[in-house]
Amino acid sequence: MHIFFAYSSKFFKPKSKSLQPISLLLFNLTSTRPMSQSTSIPKKMERVRDHGYDNYMEVEKKTRKVVKFQDLILSQPNQIIQASRLDLLARRLGFKQHEAGAFVLRFPHVFEIYEHPVQRILYCRLTRKAHLQIDQEKRALTAQIPDAVTRLRKLVMMSNTGRIRLEHVRIARYEFGLPDDFEYSVILQYPEYFRLFDADETRKKYIELVEKDPSLAVCAIEKLREIEYREKGIDAEDIRFSFIVNFPPGFKIGKYYRIAVWKWQRVPYWSPYEDVSGYDMRSLEAQKRMEKRAVAVIHELLNLTVEKKITLERIAHFRMAMNLPKKLKEFLLQHQGIFYISTRGNHGKLHTVFLREAYRKGELIEPNDLYLARRKLAELVLMSPRKAKMDSELVSYHRDWGDDEKGFIGRDHVENAFEDFGGGKDDRQGSDSYLGGDYGSDADDGCDKTMDVHLTD
């Protein structure tokens, strides 16, 4: 792997001494000299959209609604719902009147409408593919509990008080790969790692570590720097405190902004796992270190998540425990080359923070089993309804056959004939934009346009 800095040397070359008009020279002599611009990163910056991440969130907005509907169906007796009761039950999820039926019909690979053979009433249930995806996600969630324990230990170690609220972890349990009953299956199951301060109210419960493990106090970015040190040796001294920076397409970078980022990359900072309560924060140098430490904390927090993304509102829950700034959105906009904030989903009220270096062309560079299992649901959501119609035609054709021919083709054969829960390449309409499309050239653009710190194999 290789980290390098791309600069434009033209900024440091002296300008050519060409002849200027006399009027321009007189103007320069009589006018006051403008003050030099500051080389610090601007506090307030406009957000530059990256449509790749926004498209990712558009798909997740659909899958989020689908998951709510799935949970509603699974909570019913026999895991079926009468079609006439869909609107009534869907109002609990925020659906409008007569919207639930149309929503179910939009995703025939997830939901199935069928007629009861005796009652002659329409019912709604999950398809076999949806059940397989749910089972796969449950198995992946159970298998990665040891990793989730490590992530939770590192999360508590980043707290300045050595403990963290149970309610805040419960709200973000999906992002950190924790099961719904993590209080019993993770915290109480591992008493050698965690200590739970019980209380009458859930909001007053705290998680504390029995003993801190120094081997876990290593950030993900530090591991990358260590690899670079081993490869480059003394030449890697410039990356000692640097982060991987890759600005979004269309981000305007001026001369002074380049210099400001260049200087910021070399500012030393304290580790997110280091206790800074005893340091004097009155000096300007200490404040700069704390600002960069906040970037390192959010960077490490995103690395602890399963999909390397989390909502801004859930990061705010850890603000007091991790010494993060009050205006988180403005703070993250200062570092758009490291993080990306997407406002898609929930009518712009939801802000999702992505770790830019972790994604390439809409996919995680280092995927895990739980991420892949969750992506299966997105594949079912994006799959063309045309294939579902073809499946139903084949199954109905199968019913007309004799008993001696029923073994040749059936529902199991039709649904398993398509690899990886999805159809062939011709049947995956719209899935390329989510799974394999070009996502704003995170890795391909910007070497000659921006000052990037790339990580390549």
UniProtKB/TrEMBL annotation:
Sequence ranges assigned to domain PORR in this UniProt record: 48-385
GO molecular function terms attached to this record: RNA binding
Pfam family, one: PORR
Region: Disordered, residue numbers: 419-457
Domain of life: Eukaryota
Biased composition (Basic and acidic residues): 419-430, 446-457
Name assigned to this protein: PORR domain-containing protein
